Amino acid sequence: MASPVIRPFHPTDVSGVVELILPIQQQEFGIAIEREDQPDLSDIPSFYQKGAGGFWVAEDVGRIVGTIALKELGSRRAALRKMFVASPFRGSAHGLGAKLLDTLTRHARRQGVVDIYLGTTEAFLAAHRFYEKNGFEEVARSTLPADFPVMEVDRKFYRMALP
């Protein structure tokens, strides 16, 4: 089986992105969240694909199976957002999460970003392990940049310092 292709988001990808993200949030993790609660999904280019930001998708045989986004915060800081991988593509056997994160961090370094922050729910235990294994350190909410976009469900926060 060929690996999914990671590429920048195109506006024609929006339905595939929503079809990946919402079931993971709602069904896998029981989070009561709708598309309307996530205005960034309605205009990905203007929310993410400006300045040092970006949004990437992993595509497998015409289907979006992974996403990751970088939201510029200013002052050489950014937020990692919308990291989702379809369950058949998770785990070290596929390495898709690591490939998506590598795509994002390489882009961030090229853009001069020195700190990447993220927020996540307490329910995403595998995500916590993944972030910690990949260089993120847990931080207190009080240490986040003032312009960090905290979601209502975020309870754990992480920071990665880019060399």
Note the main attributes of this structure:
single chain; 163 residues; alpha+beta; Aminopeptidase; seven-stranded mixed sheet; 4 helices; 7 strands; globular
Task: From the 3D structure, determine the CATH topology.
Answer: Aminopeptidase
Helical percentage: 25-40%
Strand content: 25-35%
Number of strands: 7
Strand order of the largest sheet: 1-2-3-4-5-7-6
Low-confidence stretches: none
* Biggest sheet record: 7 strands, mixed
Q: How many distinct folded domains?
A: 1
Element layout with pairings:
Layout: E1 5-8, H1 14-28, H2 44-48, E2 54-60, E3 63-74, E4 77-85, H3 96-110, E5 115-120, H4 125-133, E6 137-139, E7 156-161
Parallel strand pairs: 4-5
Antiparallel strand pairs: 1-2, 2-3, 3-4, 5-7, 6-7
What would you note in describing this structure?
By secondary structure, the protein is α+β, with helices and mostly antiparallel strands. It has one domain (5-161): Aminopeptidase, CATH 3.40.630.30. The chain has four helices and seven strands. It has helices at 14-28, 44-48, 96-110, 125-133, and strands at residues 5-8, 54-60, 63-74, 77-85, 115-120, 137-139, 156-161. A seven-stranded mixed beta sheet has the order 1-2-3-4-5-7-6. Helix 3 (96-110) links the parallel strand 4 and strand 5 (115-120). The longest helix has 15 residues, at 14-28. The chain is globular, with a radius of gyration of 15 Å. The N and C termini lie far apart (34 Å). The mean pLDDT is 94.
